[in-house]
Amino acid sequence: MLMQRRQAISLKAGNYSQSRFQMVQHLTYCRRLSHNGASNKTRLFQTPGNHIAYLYTKKVLMRLSKTKKDVSSAYRGSMCAKCMRDRISCDLLFSKKCVAQQQMQMSL
């Protein structure tokens, strides 16, 4: 309460700092959609007239080329997750079987 009184007195006397009580420019969306959804993402930019405005950004995948949108995993997404898991487990079991056979031959 005391701090508020001191601020009020200093404002009346004209002793205030510009950075503390600086006005902020009010921004509104330019388009009809007024909600901050996935299709309405914006970023701030400064116009040549020294105003701050919204710049609408496109979605991330829309900015990429077609070759960069595909899946970067094994088999490039041509196989479902269950088939992929089965193939990996079969390969693992086969490699363990080969190692066991080699150890059996070494012991004989």
Structural description of this entry:
The chain has helices spanning 2-13, 60-63, 81-107; strands spanning 42-46, 52-56. Among the domains are: 23-62, no CATH class; 74-108. It is rod-shaped. The chain is mainly α and 108 residues long. Mean pLDDT is 79; it is low at 1-11. The relative contact order is 0.06. The protein has a two-stranded antiparallel sheet. The N and C termini lie far apart (91 Å).
Nutshell version of this structure?
It is built from three helices and two strands, in the order αββαα.
Secondary structure blueprint with pairings:
Layout: H1 2-13, E1 42-46, E2 52-56, H2 60-63, H3 81-107
Antiparallel strand pairs: 1-2
Largest sheet: 2 strands, antiparallel
Q: What percentage of amino acids are in beta strands?
A: 5-15%
Rounded to the nearest angstrom, the radius of gyration is 32 Å
Uncertain segments are 1-11
Number of strands: 2
If you average the pLDDT, what whole number results? 79
Shape: rod-shaped
- Category by helix and strand content: mainly alpha
- Helix content, binned percent: 25-40%
Q: Count of DSSP helices?
A: 3
Strand order of the largest sheet: 1-2
Task: Please write the string of helix (H) and strand (E) elements.
Answer: HEEHH
